[in-house]
Amino acid sequence: MVIKHFELLKKDGKSRLGILHTSHGDIETPCFMPVGTQGTVKAIFPSDLIKMGAKIILANTYHLYLRPGMDIIKQAGGLHKFINWSLPILTDSGGFQVFSMNDLRKISEQGVEFRSHIDGSKHFFTPEKVIEIQDVLGSDVIMVLDECVEYPVEHDYVKASAELTLRWAKRSKVKYNELNLNNNRLLFGIIQGSTYKDLRKFSAESTVEIGFDGYAIGGLSVGEPSERMYEMVSETEKFLPEYKPRYLMGVGTPEDLLLCIEQGIDMFDCVLPTRNARNGQALTSAGKVNLKNARYKNDFSPLDSECDCYTCKNFTKAYLSHLFRAEEFLGLQLNSLHNLNFMLKLTETIRNSISEGKFKETKKEFLKKYQGLQ
Amino acid sequence: MVIKHFELLKKDGKSRLGILHTSHGDIETPCFMPVGTQGTVKAIFPSDLIKMGAKIILANTYHLYLRPGMDIIKQAGGLHKFINWSLPILTDSGGFQVFSMNDLRKISEQGVEFRSHIDGSKHFFTPEKVIEIQDVLGSDVIMVLDECVEYPVEHDYVKASAELTLRWAKRSKVKYNELNLNNNRLLFGIIQGSTYKDLRKFSAESTVEIGFDGYAIGGLSVGEPSERMYEMVSETEKFLPEYKPRYLMGVGTPEDLLLCIEQGIDMFDCVLPTRNARNGQALTSAGKVNLKNARYKNDFSPLDSECDCYTCKNFTKAYLSHLFRAEEFLGLQLNSLHNLNFMLKLTETIRNSISEGKFKETKKEFLKKYQGLQ
Lengths: 374, 374
Hints:
The structure is a homodimer.
Chain A: E1 2-3, E2 6-12, E3 15-22, E4 25-29, E5 31-33, H1 46-51, E6 57-60, H2 61-66, H3 70-76, H4 79-83, E7 89-92, H5 95-100, E8 106-107, E9 112-115, E10 122-125, H6 127-137, E11 141-143, H7 155-179, E12 186-191, H8 197-210, E13 214-217, H9 226-237, E14 246-248, H10 254-261, E15 267-269, H11 272-278, E16 281-284, E17 287-290, H12 310-314, H13 317-325, H14 329-355, H15 359-370
Parallel strand pairs in A: 5-15, 6-7, 7-11, 11-12, 12-13, 13-14, 14-15
Antiparallel strand pairs in A: 1-2, 2-3, 3-4, 8-9, 9-10, 16-17
């Protein structure tokens, strides 16, 4: 069976190989989406994203709405043109930012009032407005406004919040339908419910009932133990339709990708590969490397001898270590490039393994080597 | 007449077209040398330096001696290998840094004691030691240790200082000869004398008498008025031999390059194109552009429509302006790339104009357009 915007090509256990069709191109899944919050993946040239095989990037509604603002984006002819990125863009709704960056937010049935983290100005997001903003941005994958609760929160609060998120999701769908967008500009619902199984079930079933082009699992990777996260992915995934893409928001590490792809997740995004890169942490096939560690000062081998990126083909750990000690930009540029390349190549390897029916072997082999150093 | 390491190909007025031969390759002059103080040109990939036509970069003896230290550089097999740069490297002697970064330095006939700006540790540089360090670095152009005086300073002090620098230069030459380096690893003397004509004459004549592979004019662009600098270049240049390269240290702006090439200077280095780039100032054929200026927020034209760099071919001033406002790394990366490309292309244009005997027209045309905006 083929749904027009998503093809499920093959399954290997619960892990899935697919293709997501959007108005700016196709994305093979499972995929890792580099995060470009403010319209740039930090310290990376767009041409390098293309070279390393990124087919889609994330941007953030909250941030772009505040700066440069919708007027500028409109004049530019949309976000793709503004940032000169011709491949797909998924925009997060800004729900997470409104709730995580604002102590003064006021939530109501209508929407959420918040203050700009830039100048303190007051703003009001409704589910409808957030869809409209993403329409102007020209997003290929539009996310509904949701309330993303902290961890841990009591069951009662999470229940009320998941119900509100659901009512917002319905209004989002109505607004999206009104806008009558190009068919391949997709709308994804977001499932909440914190770490409560019954609420994950409720949120999943009722969000699916509304009907979206894909389903995101939100509210995880916010401080709960990893085991709890994996459990909640499992408790959510089982209520999701087979023929729609599933997106685990804000996740994660190489291990997270493997363990969650094993449970049927198709899409991921996370700032960690680039954020940690800027702090000197590199991801390698033999595990994590902290370039600020004294042992690398005179280690004249590449970060990862199996890696084909510009950093690994040209520079040694000793040089990278020097760049971090000397607080040189080139260090974080080279390490960000490497880490993103690592995540993108890992998902490519995973896709190939699913295609060959060898996901479990590949996972085992990768983790054995990756966790060996730790 | 051809001196083995420097060919003077053509003159147009006093402006000169030449080729400097070094152990890692040839450099067409006039040339602008990007500054890579700590073994990296800030925020620029070495592959991009190559693409934009950089044939030589600078590095700094003082900085590299302190960090990563000579032990690491030695283990790496020299600076070229450590930073993976296969073209020529000129290393400044560190004199300027010892004198500008150290309030506690103690100068004597023997050398200069200073404290590390990193950890406060005490070190002692002699003219001989600085040559030895540059030997280990593997520098293609080695600079002598000099005392770089502030501006303004009294005649008596400058006189004594220029005499000391001269005695150090003699010792440097002796040490250099002892090391018996590859013929195309060159040694440059440095002429001091602040803004005193008689001392510039003294320093130039006596430094030339020692005999070096090239002559640097030091102690300028340290706060004196531009007119004074141009005058001192003229007052120094006339005592320099025709068939050796002349290097004006720490200079400069596009105007400086044109005005000093007109006076017979061959080589330049300056941190301004990259330092100002990081602050949002772009160099364009129509003058300087401050990307933080409100007028560029919705200017959807490239920085410089005549420029062929990655930045200008792909991005608008509006996007660059957004990146600077949002304090994104990509802004300073793209602007650094553009500014360096601008300086390198300007020197290429100048070389072509000398070759065609049209230096004066090119200079006039460039300045008319460049200064139009200001």
